[in-house]
Design a protein that fits this description.
7-stranded antiparallel β-sheet, Cell Division Protein Zipa, Chain: A, alpha+beta, 145 residues, 25% strand, single chain
Length: 145
């Protein structure tokens, strides 16, 4: 289980639901525009995350942060981020600050909008505490079961 963030093209689609539907089954190769944005995202992500692993080929791109489990990926034209429900307390707050920081970088460099399917709303900095609480509560629940 993971806390997920999807990046949607709300410039082309008037609603979140239409952007989600349009994102399914798109290109199997990373579009040139996204590849160029990824080259700008990578150094900024490394500055934010510190130690991270990079990977990719013509159909996918990835940035992984081992200590948090955070993964930012592009499969074709679809960009997503996820972080496992491992973190509680202050650690959950720190990890969600990374998620929100990285989401802001992706939004700035791609023009895509970060969508939080856990809340059913766009990701906004004002909801970081709510996201950290969700991470904390879910991680606690998973540890009990």
């Amino acid at each position: 289980m993971s806390y997920d963030v999807s990046f949607l093209d709300l410039r082309r689609y008037p609603s979140v639901s239409e952007a989600i539907e349009a994102g399914e089954g798109r290109s199997s190769t990373v579009p040139q525009e996204l590849g160029e944005a990824w080259r700008r995202i990578t150094p900024r992500a490394l500055e934010l995350l510190g130690d991270a692993e990079l990977g990719g080929n013509e159909s996918w791109l990835g940035i992984g942060h081992g200590p948090s489990g955070l993964q930012l990926s592009a499969y074709g034209a679809n960009v997503m981020m996820n972080v496992p429900y491992w973190h509680q307390g202050e650690e959950a707050e720190k990890v969600m600050a990374l998620v929100y920081g990285l989401a802001a970088i992706v939004e700035e460099e791609t023009g895509l909008s970060a969508y939080d399917p856990q809340t059913g709303d766009l990701l906004t900095a004002s909801r970081t505490a709510e996201a950290a609480a969700m991470m904390n509560d879910t991680a606690g629940w998973l540890k009990r079961y």
